[in-house]
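Encode chain A's predicted structure.
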Amino acid sequence: MLNFGYLISYNIAGQYEDLVARVTNFHNEDKGFMVLDGDVFDVPIRKDIVHRVVRWQLAKRQQVHP
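Encoded structure for chain A:
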């Protein structure tokens, strides 16, 4: 199984920058790099959506299950 290390951005033609992620396994051995599409991973954070999700999670936490 693989996990991702730090992200490094670089410039390309387009609205958002692609991100390059270092890929390692659980033994922290380098397995190469992966390019993450900037149109998905470099978009601005929508604080209104994050706020709605946090409120939803807090409401679900307070529910009592039989």
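The chain has a mean pLDDT of 81.
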